[in-house]
């Protein structure tokens, strides 16, 4: 494309990205001003040149398209008219009684009549084709033009007779080929079967169309300097070309056009190619136009642009140097002042010589230098306060460790005094506490399940084993990751609220892989938390307890509120905290969703990205 010209890409790339941008950043401020002003003056010139070239190119392209469409239309009209005469002649011969009798009886008395009929058909279509009659075995029985293109024997297993046998009574168009040493001569055959009185094939009428015949059909439409006409058959073989020869490049261009949808047009190197299909003849007509004039026009415009650009560059260099030095002087004074501050002289001030933006910047620098010492002292004070806060935070971390050590001591004392239930409670509480104070925010699913089981063991002792915990986690999902302490609050809700008024009950924890809806899929994040965009991990926490009303479920699933707003009444705090953590980690496609029926039970679905890393 024309707009991919090298100069525009170079200058725009220089200002935007890549290594050229790094070079631009390394320039001094004076160099940047000078370079920017120079490029700014060159780009409009290039844009004008490209616009002019594009307009001329489009104008000439439209002219070429119009000429090509006219040439193709004339060629198609001439080809269709010529083939109509050839089809009429073949049809008359294939249905003529003399031809049938001659092929059936091979009586010499019909030979003279047959010769006259072939001669009349050849005279009528002599400039388009020559006609021959072949018997059922493919042997030539009579012809008017006894030349190298009219074979004495045609194969029944391929080419024209093969296709005619499979389409009796229809006109068949097929390419033919003749080798003269290393040279290959392409031409065309048109044929139709001749049926006897029983309806069986008695022979064939074949018309041979060679290059001279095509030249007569197109009447000089394809001229080498203006354009060349090519005719291709259904097998993508060129059977005629109006020029002296054709190259493999032309054949490849024609095949590429055959694979295109309408309109079939392309540009290859120094030519435009156009292709059309004629249903009546079952042939493709391709027209190749040279683009030498267009390339010459581009060269002239490029020469004019280069001459104009040279004068513009000299003017730009002079003006850019003058104005860049004028702009750089205040910046130079500011650079000297900053160097003084780097050396520790905070009392430095810049002389303000104007009210423009650079003058305002100089005044702001003076204000900044006066407040620099005060800001430094405030920064030191904040660092001291931050250190004190870190010390207090470290002290606060001692309390959970102290509680964990105390529970461990209680466990061993309970073992010594043979109190198994107290041993179980202390051991499970210690496990829960150890996980709570762990520094890992993201854990494996099997670790979270272990925490849930430890918690339920404590609750079973409390509620005297009136419920059962059922865990259904496939082995391939045990290493999936999730935020710490996301299942325990959901199981706690199921036990405390769902099974509170039940004599017995069950809590089910089940995991599966689900497909995200199309509208909720999104690309993975750089932090690695969301690598799978189509599949998700879904964990169900379900109980067979008292359930909830429809209003309670709707309020629980309400979106668009913050965790603080949804927990303002201290209801479902654990549920909403887990939902908020999941959405903060992974975004809106993920989180919690509840389903419940009064008197039947409640199920909470936890949806997470499927991440095994």
Describe the structure.
The chain is α+β, with helices and mostly antiparallel strands. It is 52% helix and 19% strand. It is built from 17 helices and 17 strands. It has helices at 6-16, 18-26, 29-94, 97-105, 111-124, 159-166, 211-218, 248-258, 292-342, 357-396, 398-416, 420-436, 445-462, 488-498, 550-556, 563-566, 573-586; strands at residues 130-135, 140-143, 172-180, 183-195, 201-209, 228-232, 238-241, 264-268, 271-278, 283-290, 442-444, 467-472, 481-483, 505-515, 535-543, 591-597, 601-609. The strands form four sheets. Strands 2-1-5-4-3 form a five-stranded antiparallel sheet, sandwiched between helices. α1 (6-16) packs across α2 and α3 runs antiparallel to α5 (111-124). It is flat. The relative contact order is 0.06.
Secondary structure elements and pairings:
Elements (H helix, E strand, L loop, with lengths): L5 H11 L1 H9 L2 H66 L2 H9 L5 H14 L5 E6 L4 E4 L15 H8 L5 E9 L2 E13 L5 E9 L1 H8 L9 E5 L5 E4 L6 H11 L5 E5 L2 E8 L4 E8 L1 H51 L14 H40 L1 H19 L3 H17 L5 E3 H18 L4 E6 L8 E3 L4 H11 L6 E11 L19 E9 L6 H7 L6 H4 L6 H14 L4 E7 L3 E9 L4
Parallel strand pairs: 12-14
Antiparallel strand pairs: 1-2, 1-5, 3-4, 4-5, 6-7, 6-10, 8-9, 9-10, 11-13, 14-15, 15-17, 16-17
Helix pairs in contact: 1-2, 3-5, 3-9, 9-10, 11-12, 12-13, 13-14
